[in-house]
Design brief:
Radius of gyration: 27 Å
Low-confidence stretches: 1-94, 481-491
Mean pLDDT: 85
Number of helices: 20
Strand order of the largest sheet: 8-3-2-12-20-19
Largest sheet: 6 strands, mixed
Length: 634
């Protein structure tokens, strides 16, 4: 039996290995290997194939070779070639060469074996994580009569769900409120178009076809009073709300729980249902590693306040919420963003999850994703009130020039060009008709809900800026507790700058000389595109070409700082049943991934053709994962 163990015992060994080999590129980078004859001697065919092009070149240049952790491959023992490869890596000297800004891969090293346990448990399946995917997988397993244990690292008395709203295709509560019906096949086709056909097609279609039933099931214990606190973002639609732009479709089919009945309360309803069906819950308990025997899951080692816990089982579901709290893992899985950062920027996240689910699966032999995994709102979207949130405006760089299609349909992809530009201040420019143009919006994250109240607030912000320009503005008196930006999502109050002329506005923005002249000329060219109904520079759709010609003129500034994501979304390659795959893309018996540990659900960036797709995928596919595990258990 191949036991792996807790990081507490392996800390010294990890530090030693880190010093011995600063460059360690694992087997799952993908691509074709290039290697010197000397390095290739003694290496097994499997080790060579498992290495990526970057790993192989690193091996040839620095005497290093990437390989799976010792004994971690499903059902196999370490070959002589693999042993030689590890010895070569461990014997190499320190190097300052970093691949994709990956400077520490100690997370790939499986910990030492634990033999002393404070308690031992037995069940059919263990679910790691109480989030949307974990709780739905657990409830489904329990309701199918399986003995299931869920462990969660948060204490029970302070447990809180992360997130508030989820997309739902045709959920009963939405249909009762008049939200339009969505064809699951149409949703699937649209989703795969946006994501360049990159996600696992079985998972995307499984979500689309099961969203209605699983959403109703997830909400089945809510009372009328609970539903009364639920809102439906972007529905009813405002007069100019769009449903399609440039061939990409959007739907206002979302259940938003920002009131007294929040997602924590709903998860507790689902926990109660699972407990009634026989599930056991252990809070304040951290997953450490998966026990493998003959290439199959045989148990899990966890830890709590009393020490280590051994759980004997036939299946493990990793639903630990991603790796946002682990910058080293983010650098490995997000090389596109890791390499794009400039001085002063870093990979970071609002999530504290350390990637344990992905680590455990990798130590058990699972295949890491080979393309950059998506972040949430990572590429170009930042607050407060920045560029991605203002597609109706014209975006200008420090040279006075436009640089992209400001109204690219998907907001998360809209500001991608800023990743590859200087971090100097950029500007969003509009005219006095912006309150009209702003009403042309899409139901998505970073979208603007053009209610009368929100349009009035926008007018107030513009008038405030103009009054400041004229020197007539007086700060209103505030009652204690009032003031400050409000609202939900990644959009807060925007501070506008105003001027009677474009030339004057250029000066206020700090544009001088050629940049100021180009700014005025650029706006004139853009206005010509609006009149012609065709954007000859960046292809902005005709129906959202809004001129900047009626003063006063307004602008807000955007200081790009990249590297932050709300959460990470992927890590392990699975099949359509969410069964983790090994190095040869064969399923590992008993090992399943759900939620943000499960790879290939999106492209290289999160998207929202319906707001709340992330939570929706988690809870819908979480239940489907539970069904897969139940089928495996028999």
């Amino acid at each position: 039996m191949a036991l792996r163990a807790g990081p507490k015992e392996a800390e010294a060994a990890t530090k030693e290995g880190r010093a011995a080999a600063r460059v360690f590129v694992p087997r799952d980078m993908g691509g074709l290997g290039i290697m010197s004859k000397a390095t290739n001697q003694g290496m097994s065919r499997r080790s060579f194939i498992g290495m990526g092009a970057v790993a192989a070149m690193a091996a040839g240049a620095a005497g290093l070779a990437g390989c799976a952790p010792s004994g971690s491959s499903a059902g196999g023992s370490e070959s002589a070639g693999d042993a030689n490869t590890q010895a070569t890596a461990q014997g190499a000297g320190a190097s300052d060469v970093h691949i994709h800004n990956v400077t520490d891969t100690s997370w790939m090293t499986p910990p030492a074996e634990v033999t002393d346990f404070a308690k031992e448990l037995t069940c059919d399946a263990v679910v790691c994580g109480h989030g949307f995917a974990g709780i739905t997988a657990c409830r489904e397993l329990a309701e199918q009569g399986k003995k299931v244990i869920l462990i969660e690292k948060q204490p029970e008395d302070t447990y809180a769900a992360v997130g508030n709203e989820f997309a739902a295709l045709n959920a009963k509560i939405l249909q009762e409120r008049g939200v339009p019906h969505i064809d699951p096949v149409e949703f699937y086709q649209n989703f795969m178009k946006i994501t360049s056909n990159m996600p696992n097609p079985t998972l995307v279609m499984k979500f689309a076809q099961n969203s209605e039933e699983n959403s109703n099931w997830y909400l089945d214990r809510l009372t009328e009073e609970d539903f009364a606190t639920m809102t439906t973002a972007f529905f009813p639609p405002t007069e100019h709300q769009l449903t399609e732009l440039s061939g990409i479709k959007f739907w206002p089919s979302v259940c938003s729980f920002y009131g007294e009945c929040n997602q924590t309360k709903i998860q507790m309803y689902n926990q109660a249902a699972a407990e009634e069906a026989g599930a056991e819950f252990y809070f304040g308990t951290t997953a450490e590693y998966i026990i493998m025997e003959n290439g199959a899951v045989a148990g899990l080692v966890a830890s709590d306040a009393d020490g280590y816990v051994k759980i004997t089982c036939k299946a493990v579901v990793c639903a630990c919420g991603g790796m946002g709290g682990n910058p080293d893992m983010m650098a490995y899985f997000m090389p596109d963003m890791a390499q794009a950062l400039v001085e002063g920027e870093s990979l970071n996240s609002m999530s504290a999850n350390d990637g344990r689910g992905v680590q455990m699966a990798y130590w058990a032999g699972a295949h890491l994703e080979t393309t950059p995994i998506p972040g949430m709102n990572m590429k170009g979207l930042s607050v407060p009130g920045k560029m991605n949130c203002l597609p109706q405006a014209v975006w200008i760089d420090e040279n006075g020039k436009r640089f992209c299609n400001e109204f690219y349909p998907t907001s998360e992809q809209r500001g991608y060009q800023t990743t590859f530009m200087s971090r100097k201040t950029k500007y969003a420019v509009c005219d006095n008709n912006f309150t009209e143009y702003r009403q042309y919006t899409l139901p998505q994250h970073a979208g603007f809900n053009a209610t009368e109240e929100n349009i009035a607030a926008l007018r107030e912000s513009l008038d405030k800026a103009y009054a400041k320009f004229k020197g007539t503005y007086e700060e209103p008196e505030q009652t204690e507790g009032e003031g400050g930006p409000g609202g939900h999502g990644p959009m807060t109050e925007v501070e506008f700058i105003a001027d009677d002329t474009l030339e004057g506005l250029a000066g206020q923005l700090g544009l001088t000389g050629d940049a100021a002249a180009e700014f005025v000329a650029q706006i004139e060219r853009y206005n010509g595109y609006c009149e012609a109904g065709a954007d000859a520079e960046f292809g902005r759709a005709a129906e959202v070409l809004f001129p900047v010609k009626d003063g006063p003129f307004y602008a807000c500034t955007f200081d790009p700082v990249l590297g932050e994501t709300m959460v990470t979304m992927g890590g392990i390659i699975t099949d359509g049943d969410m069964n983790a795959l090994d190095a040869n893309y064969e399923p590992i018996p008993g090992l399943y991934m759900a939620g943000n540990d499960c790879g290939r659900r999106f492209g290289t960036e999160y998207i929202t053709p319906i707001p709340g797709v992330s939570l929706a995928f988690a809870l819908v596919l979480g239940r489907e994962c539970g069904k897969s595990v139940a089928k495996f258990l028999g």
